[in-house]
Amino acid sequence: MRCLIVDDSAVFVHAACRLLEHQGIAVVGVAATSEEASRRFTELHPDVTLVDVELGGQSGFDVAEYFADMIAGSPAVGFITKSDLTAGAIVDLVGGSADRTRG
């Protein structure tokens, strides 16, 4: 599975990349702003995109709106808190788990 991480915290991005890569998810790119996220998403075509809810001066929910048309038919729409982030939690969401919210 290929993942794009959108978060303005370099510390979190580093930790999340290490965790997910160790658990078998390839982090193919990172972005810190909505503009960068949109560009990276278009370039990389990730299977899943993790977006921080509080993205600096922007709302992560606004960033998710940029992807709305691209993900409208996707089963990979959900929420995982940072403290519950694992490859298994992502796979559960992508796999269409009935529980769309973690944490």
Layout: helices, strands, pairs:
Layout: E1 2-6, H1 10-22, E2 26-31, H2 34-44, E3 48-51, E4 54-55, E5 58-59, H3 60-66, H4 68-71, E6 79-80, H5 87-94, E7 101-102
Parallel strand pairs: 1-2, 1-3, 6-7
Antiparallel strand pairs: 4-5
Task: Please give a quick description of this structure.
With 103 residues, the chain is of the alpha/beta class. It has 5 helices and 7 strands; from the N terminus they run βαβαβββααβαβ.
Structural write-up:
This protein is an alpha/beta fold. The chain has a single domain (2-102), classed as 3-Layer(aba) Sandwich (Rossmann fold). The protein has 5 helices and 7 strands, in the order βαβαβββααβαβ. The chain has helices spanning 10-22, 34-44, 60-66, 68-71, 87-94, and strands at residues 2-6, 26-31, 48-51, 54-55, 58-59, 79-80, 101-102. Strands 2-1-3 form a 3-stranded parallel β-sheet, sandwiched between helices. A two-stranded antiparallel sheet has the order 4-5. β1, α1 (10-22) and β2 form a beta-alpha-beta unit. It is globular and about 30 Å long. The model is unreliable at 97-103 (pLDDT under 50).
